[in-house]
Every structure is written in C-alpha cells, then in structure tokens.
Amino acid sequence: MKKLALLSMLAAPLAFAQDWMPTAFDHTEVSPGIYLLTGADSELPVGATSLLVGDEYVVLIDDSFAPLGPALLEKIEELAGRPADFIINTHAHGDHTGSNQFQAENGAIIVAHDNLRSRMENDPEQNTGPGALPIITFSDQMTFHINGIEAYVFHIETAHTDGDAAILFREANVIVAGDLLFRGMFPFIDYDSGGSVSGYKAGMQQLIDMSNDDTEFMPGHGPVASRADVQQDLDMLIDAEKRVKALLNKGMSEEDIVAANPLADYHDDYNWGFITTERMTRTLIRSLTTD
Ligand SMILES: [Zn+2]
After folding, report:
1. What's the half-sphere exposure (Cβ side, CA atoms, 13 Å) at 197?
2. In principle, which of 8, 23, 45, 134 could form an S-S bond with 12, CB 3.0–4.6 Å?
3. Cβ–Cβ under 8 Å, residues 88 and 167
4. Average pLDDT for residues 130-142, to the nearest whole number?
C-alpha cells in the first residue's frame, strides 16, 4: 500500500490526503526571514517548501500536495502574519505545485518557467486545476527586488524536468535547489518530463559553482545542506553512472546489470521508497542508452 502510494507521489496531483502524508509543517530558519518548511509528522521526505518573509512581501517557493494547502497556509501565517504574495514553482510535479490553486485563492501570484506552465496545461497528470497555472513565466532568468534584497531566479535546462528553476538569495548566501537536490537520496530524474542525467549533473555543478563554503542549500527533499553535501551527492551520481557504463560496455543487458547491482554499496545511504537502488540503476541505463 505504502509502496504503491509512493509510486505516484512525485508526479501525480492527489485530491485526497494519503496516510503517509504529513498533516502539519515544521520550520527551520536558515537565515533571518528565510525558512525551510518540511512535513512535521511523516517519516517520508515529501517535497520541501521554502519561505521568504519580509516587511514588504512574502514569497513561498513550492507549495506541496493539494491536501496540505491549508496546513501550509497556517504555517505561513504563523511565520509571516499573512498569506504568501508570490509563489515560485521550481518544477511541475504535484508535490511542489499541488496547492497552487489554494494559495492563489488566498492571494498568491504564481511565477514559474515557461515550460512548467505548458506541462501543467498539457499534461492532465500535472495540472492541479485551472487556478493553479503560473500567471507570470520566464524563459531564462528573472530577479525579485523585494524586502531590500535580491532573489535571483534562474532556469536549469533539462535536469530534473525541462522546466526547472532554482533561486539564489544573494545577500543571505542561500540557494533553493528544488529537486536538483535530493539530499542523501538517489535523485528522481524525470525523463518523461524532459529531464536527463547529463543535465541533472550539469545543473548540480552549476549550483556548486555559484556557492562557497558558507552557502546553505535548501533541497527539494531532505534537510538543509552545505556545499560539501551537494558535492558528495553529485560525486555519487557521477560514480554510479560510471559503474553502470562499465557494465554496458561489457555488453550486458539491462536485466543482467540490475541483477549485478553495481550500486550495491550506495544502497544503505541512498536508497529510499520512491527511488530505489534498482530504479536508479534503470534510470542510468536509460540515460546511457538514449542520451
Ligand atoms: Zn519533482
């Protein structure tokens, strides 16, 4: 039951709360006025959201599953004293855009990459309602000048999906990575939504290149991370791809490679319910045989 629910967890908008979903949000203040909001009472690392609270504007980055909209609003009101003015979606998956419509009904203006809007418009699995679509979209980058700071929003090409955005809060030295960072977990790389392993690796490298030893990374899934943490996860992915490639070069079939389990010694650290060691292996095979 839990595994079945997990299979649809990241992609499908869900109308009803599932038993593995959190019912409330915890917050971590990573820098003054910048918070990571995570599920308070679920053992699963469901999509994290980030919140910028200032004197002028309240900006929410990603907004979790639809059934969690009211609990998320409650947390925003606790921290900001009012609902969000803007939402930036880092990509189209339902665990990051699910409560768009609800938060928009409470006053938020939704901003995202062009490709995210077209995916939500054209894919019923990713359309979380007519009021859920971003009304401002960008193709490459944009900057919010609010609360006396800059929030630099930029597109990362063909990585987790084809509509990914990440955000740099320059003054605070905080990067919101979205699903370019599954901290300490095998990443979901969504080929069916325009993602790719090569783009994902390049995107992680791009974020590392923008950072320094003091940068705090807000992940799409998992806890707040350092540059060294992000490097570790990228090194894992590069090494995992090399291992799979070596077996492909020997002429082994997909099933033989899965049976040989080349990622076995990453299993204890990186395997999780949605992206198992086997699924990561199959993603890498698909990447190496189609890229
Ligand atoms: Zn995602």
Report:
1. 23
2. 8
3. yes
4. 94
Q: How close is the Cα of 15 to the center of ligand 1, in Å?
A: 18
Query: What are the tokens at 110?
Result: 């939704």
Q: Which residues contact 4 (CB under 8 A, 6 or more apart)?
A: none
List residues bridging with 144 in a β-sheet: 151
User: What SS3 string covers 224-263?
Assistant: CECHHHHHHHHHHHHHHHHHHHHHHHCCCCHHHHHHHCCC
Cα of 84 vs centre of ligand 1, distance in Å, is: 22
How many angstroms separate the alpha carbon of residue 274 from the centre of ligand 1? 11
pLDDT tens-place string over residues 198-218: 999 999 999 999 999 999 999
Alpha-carbon distance 45 to 36, whole Å? 13
Dig out the tokens for 139 from the structure.
């193709």
Stretch (H or E) spanning 200: helix 197-209
DSSP state of 92: S
Burial (CB count <10 Å: 0-12, 13-18, 19+), residue 283:
buried
Q: How many CA atoms lie within 13 A of 127 on its CB side?
A: 10
Please, what is the Cα angle at 205 between 216 and 265, to 5 degrees? 90
Sequence ranges of the domains in the chain: 2-234
Q: What is the pLDDT of residue 12?
A: 45
End-to-end Cα, the chain, rounded Å: 34
Classify domain 2-234 by CATH number. 3.60.15.10
CA of 191 to the centre of ligand 1 (A): 11
Cα(125) to centroid(ligand 1), Å: 13
User: 249: CA distance to ligand 1 center in Å?
Assistant: 31
State the pLDDT at residue 17.
Answer: 64
Sign for the pseudo-dihedral over CA of 106, 46, 50, 91: negative
